[in-house]
Amino acid sequence: MAKLSVIIITKNEAAMIARCLKSVAWADEIVVLDSGSEDDTVKICSELGARVELTSDWPGFGAQKNRALALATGEWILSLDADEWVTADLREEIEEGIKQPETNIAFRMPRLSSYCGRYMHHSGWSPDYVTRLFKRGTARFSDDLVHERLIVDGLLGSLRQPLMHETLRNLDQLLEKINSYSSAGAEMMAASGKRATLASAIGHGAWTFFRTYFLRSGFLDGREGFMLAVSNAEGTYYRYLKLMLLTEKK
User: Fold this and answer.
1) What is the rounded distance in angstroms from the CA atom of residue 139 to the CA atom of residue 34?
2) For the segment 170-208, what is each residue's pLDDT rounded down to a tens digit?
3) How far is CA 218 from the centre of its chain?
4) Angstrom distance (rounded) from CA 203 to CA 85
5) 191 to 62, 135, 144, 145, 197: CA distances (angstroms)
6) How many separate domains does the chain show?
7) For the whole model, what pTM was predicted?
8) What CATH number does residue 24 fall under?
9) What is the DSSP letter of 131?
10) Does residue 157 sit in the same domain as residue 241?
């Protein structure tokens, strides 16, 4: 079987990383690129057999994942986030997929994500296909600060078993993520020449709630579906509001 490398970028992921690493302990190589963790992330990764590399700066998610990709030596790459993990069934599909590299050079897989303790089956979160398995040299990550994507040059196959994802555990973590992601999103939009007004911020936020809760059936996800629709709307509202303030300074 072709050699498989797992790549993970981390910063202060001590609460989550062990589960992720243990789920891929069967891989030939695990590369962790850490950007200045102040908790036990590096220690845990080293103790669980990962090769840990350190960097002092933060260029954004896409660029950091490309750095991790450059460190890997396997013919095939599996990219994971620290809050994700691979089930036994998904492992079997991955191993079967990389046995047939002449057919597909990358694979996407459905991701099952939890939000404040509940797995979301609607709200635009399911099916949430992510491309994470690919042959080295055939793909790279976009340079986006957030919401990076894998750019693949070749045939893309699909796996059936889900990648597990504990995206948000509590409201404190949610608020931190809304703040950091909206700031990065506003910077990206400003760099591309986009502008915003208070009216557009309100309009985009309202549309995001309507789309998540009604068009994407978020109401079927119970109270967490409503909470997610509100937080999505907040993230969009603050992204456009920050964009407005950024462009006014120029």
Assistant:
1) 22
2) 899 999 999 999 999 999 999 999 999 999 999 999 999
3) 21
4) 36
5) 16, 32, 11, 11, 16
6) 2
7) 0.94
8) 3.90.550.10
9) E
10) no
